[in-house]
TrEMBL record:
Lineage: Archaea, Nitrososphaerota, Nitrososphaeria, Nitrososphaerales, Nitrososphaeraceae
Gene3D superfamilies with a match to the protein in the record: 3.40.50.1970, Dehydroquinate synthase-like - alpha domain (1.20.1090.10)
Gene Ontology terms, MF aspect: alcohol dehydrogenase (NAD+) activity; lactaldehyde reductase activity; metal ion binding
Name under which the protein is recorded: Lactaldehyde reductase
Domain Alcohol dehydrogenase iron-type/glycerol dehydrogenase GldA, first and last residues per copy: 7-144
């Protein structure tokens, strides 16, 4: 049996965020600064809202609990996650705790979080992948308006993230012909966008990637990446080498194509402070990624992959 879950409502395209009918008394959750989000909100035409702009990358469970306590009893009509994956993941978890609906609006076009039942939350300073149907957006809005002006590092990290998700999702044990269709189409579009300098294609590619991997899973590349993220490496940057090495380990059809994307984006080699054996111990409990990898993965395999990542340059 196949099971495909997507948001109840998806609005995509030019002016999608401007023309959407937002409820009053929404709580907008974002990671960015006021001079940026005020411009966004003016474009969107949202009225009678409250803003929470203290979300940080890789949000902690303590942040979510703090927001819940701060706004309890204030008759919030919905949460609006406006920004990257961190803002949207906070909305997802909050909505699960409170039952308040959520509207997810990506501005970086990489995580695909607006389309998925996944959230990444930090517990005790360690990122954890969570999956729950309650995390699915009540509405997802994908509008290319937010793309111009995105700093290069954010754009390349987001693009790498989307391409990693599409290719890992295609290879996942949980993939089916429909998810493979979305993942393949997403990767083809993202590859064209990156290799041929067509950034206007990134929002559509990232959206399709979110539908595809969101109904299968990411795999070894993401599992490897979290130990680097725990040391402050941006997620997309960490995936550049981690997914390249993971694809090689898995004999993926995407190995060389993904590597060429990362070379085009000019990612530098990764370094890791944690000893490789200890890092492998952190990665091994991540069954959500490892159990869905197309090949079985042992601790020794993880150590070898980490060694290749940090002691050679897999993107050379």
């Amino acid at each position: 049996m196949w099971k495909i879950l997507i948001p109840k409502k998806i609005a995509y395209g030019e002016n999608a965020a401007k023309e959407f009918d937002y409820p009053d008394n929404a709580l907008i959750i974002t990671t960015t600064e006021s001079k940026i989000y005020e411009k966004w909100i003016e474009y969107m035409g949202i009225k009678n809202y409250t803003i929470y702009d203290k979300v940080t990358p890789d949000p902690a469970i303590e942040t979510i609990e703090s927001i819940k306590a701060e706004f309890e009893g204030k008759n919030i009509s919905c949460y609006i996650g406006l920004g990257g994956g961190s803002s949207m993941d906070v909305c997802k978890y909050l909505s699960k705790l409170t039952g308040i609906p959520k509207i997810l609006i990506p501005t970086t076009f990489g995580t695909g979080a607006e389309m998925t039942t996944y959230a990444v939350i930090s517990f005790d300073h360690k990122k954890k992948l969570l999956q729950d149907e309650a995390f699915l957006a009540d509405a997802a809005i994908v509008d290319p308006y937010f793309l111009p002006g995105t700093p290069f590092n954010i754009m390349r990290n987001s693009a790498c993230d989307a391409a990693a998700q599409a290719s890992e999702g295609y290879d996942s044990k949980l993939a089916n012909p429909l998810t493979k269709l979305f993942c393949k189409e997403a990767f083809d579009i993202l590859e064209d966008a990156i290799i041929n300098d067509k950034p206007e294609l990134l929002p559509y590619g990232a959206m399709l990637s979110g539908i595809g991997f969101g109904n299968s899973s990411t795999t070894l590349g993401h599992a490897l990446s979290y130990v680097f993220s725990n040391e402050g490496v941006p997620h997309g940057y960490a995936l550049s080498s981690c997914t390249t090495v993971a694809h090689k380990f898995n004999n993926s059809q995407y190995t060389e194509r993904f590597k060429k994307i990362c070379q085009k984006l000019k990612f530098e080699p990764l370094k890791l402070k944690l000893p490789l054996d200890e890092a492998a111990d952190v990665i091994m409990p991540d069954r959500g990624h490892l159990d869905n990898n197309p090949r079985d993965v042992s601790k020794e395999d993880i150590i070898k992959c980490l060694d290749e990542i940090v002691n050679s340059n897999p993107l050379a």
